[in-house]
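Sequence design from tokenized structure. All designs in this work follow the same two-part layout: the structure record, then the generated sequence. An example of the structure record is given first.
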């Protein structure tokens, strides 16, 4: 990417990253490849892991991005915040040239909501969904 992608992290994400660091060491990559710690894990590795878990033909690594976008939109989070979180560039070049806002505060709240949502899905709990319209 040409520009840095700043990602607000939820409390759950920080905990996972701290645990991951104990597994991968002090390397510069969170998910290093198995052949070279200086190269990142390939998309193929993620697809193999999903296949081994029984998700072949059901989910891809990129599919998680689509899932997040769909759920966050359905919950009324701002389209611009979701797109920025996914590192999607604005389609309007003029707007992109003038607006450099990062929306860190609302994106932080959105990512904490997303982590809470995933955690409740994992544990089989019911999470109250937003009812108001954005």
């Amino acid at each position: 990417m040409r520009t840095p992608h700043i990602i607000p992290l939820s409390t759950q994400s920080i905990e996972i990253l701290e645990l991951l660091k104990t597994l991968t060491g002090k390397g510069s990559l969170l998910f290093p490849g198995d052949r070279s710690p200086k190269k990142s894990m390939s998309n193929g590795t993620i697809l193999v892991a999903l296949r081994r878990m029984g998700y072949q033909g059901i989910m891809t690594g990129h599919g998680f991005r689509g899932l997040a976008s769909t759920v966050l939109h359905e919950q009324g989070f701002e389209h611009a915040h979701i797109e920025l979180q996914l590192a999607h560039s604005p389609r309007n070049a003029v707007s992109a040239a003038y607006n450099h806002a990062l929306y860190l505060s609302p994106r932080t709240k959105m990512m904490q909501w997303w982590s809470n949502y995933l955690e409740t899905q994992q544990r089989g709990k019911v999470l109250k969904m937003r009812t108001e319209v954005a």
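The radius of gyration is 17 Å. We note this feature because it recurs in several other targets discussed in the main text.
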